[in-house]
Amino acid sequence: xxAVLLGTSLMGSSLASPSVPEASRPAxxxxxxxxxxxxxxxxxxxxxMPIVIGVLIGSLASGGAMAGxxxxxxxxxxxxVVGGGDTLWGIAESIAPSADPREVIHEIMRLNGLRDxxxxxxxxxxxxxxx
Length: 131
Known about the structure:
34% of the residues lie in helices and 6% in strands. It has helices spanning 37-60, 88-95, 101-112; strands at 78-81, 124-127.
């Protein structure tokens, strides 16, 4: 047989807590999450870390490495100021009449960092030297 002793000690005092019904217990107040100043700093740093890493990766992966290439040739570029009614097609035909205008336009866009073939009057463009 087994016997269970509830809260008795050698001195004879009871160690078991008295049974109190759930309804008569006072409800504990619910506390909000409080962040200390140090906790806010840590949370902000952790939240900003993916953004900082993304910017670093983007800047390292950009095409800045092209600036240091030296192949022994000196680049001579002509420049032109775009007039009213000028288009890249017309400029390409005037600087390289025997070449394919699409290739010349592509080279002009690459040299000037243009995303599309739209130019504005007064815009200065670097032109490739066509041999």
